Amino acid sequence: MTGDEQTSAPADLTRRKVLVAGGATVAAVGVAGTLTVNASADEANSEATGDGDACYTLTSELVEGPYYIDADKLRRDVTEDQEGIPLTLTLKVIDSETCKPVRNAAVDIWHCNAVGIYSGYEAMGSGGGGPAPTGEPPTGTPTGEPPTGGPGGGGGGHQEPTDDDRFLRGTWHTDRHGHVTFKTVFPGWYQGRCVHIHVKVHVDGEWTDAGYEGGHACHTGQLFFDEKSVLLTESVEPYAGNTTTRTTLDEDSIYPDNGHEGGLLYLKYDKKHIARGVRAHLTLGVDASATNDGTGGGGPRPTSSASPSASAS
């Protein structure tokens, strides 16, 4: 964490009400337990600090999906009352051409809870009284719309929220080093998709008394978890109660199969006690001049015998 990340932000401020003052953020979230790392020490240090940055390739642009709600909560702790393994997610946003940190960008994250339900769409979620979500479609469709038979049925693009809940959603700004940290829970899974978190980066806007105004989305992506970590969660409640057949990372039709460039997170956790918490981090290389709103960037991974492609429907 940097020296300017010291003060706490109210937990439920909306974009229309928040007063963004002088780089105020909240304190870092610690995770107990001996940690294991799925990255080399050098890579982890490079990702976690602002020193000695090397140029990064562009992080893959992926579909936004039908469950995005525009910056409804300006906060770093998005957990609310959701049960699950504590997850501290730190992202660093850099310009892929200059390698400089992208300051004061607005970063959105959103994901399902431990049993596969998205807030705002509980009537469409597994266990929410409706059919299980069928996942984001392969990109390249005109509006990122779900396939026929998906939530809401018959396509239709972005789905209108069915309720007012907003757990596991939030927006916050990057600091002067390009970092932003969220406190959440390890996501669960639902029909047709591997475990993932959605992310969107907005730039060229302005933080005002009303929140973040204007600008454009320069990156829309998804963050992924390796199979080893997800398997460990299956024995922990409430994940253990999720009876939906889980799609693995290799079977997922959206993950581009290109490692950290495609959104695969670096993870730290105690492999014997993952329930104590997980730390995740990744550097996002973005083209700040581009507009990537998640409706046409990136495509499904190619199908091969070594890497079967699961249907997103």
Task: Outline the structure in words.
A hairpin with a 2-residue loop joins strand 6 (196-208) and strand 7 (211-224). It contains two helices and nine strands. Helix content is 5%, strand content 22%. The protein is mainly beta and 313 residues long. A five-stranded mixed β-sheet has the order 1-8-9-2-5, with helices on one face.
Mean of the pLDDT scores? 76
**Helix residue percentage:** under 10%
Main pleated sheet: 5 strands, mixed
List segments where confidence is low: pLDDT < 50 over at least 5 consecutive residues.
1-34, 39-52, 127-133, 137-156, 297-313
Helical segment count: 2
- Rg measurement, Å: 18 Å
Order of helices and strands: EHEEEEEEHEE
Strand order of the largest sheet: 1-8-9-2-5
**N-to-C CA distance:** 40 Å
Strand content is 15-25%
The number of distinct β-strands equals: 9
Shape: globular
- Structural category is mainly beta
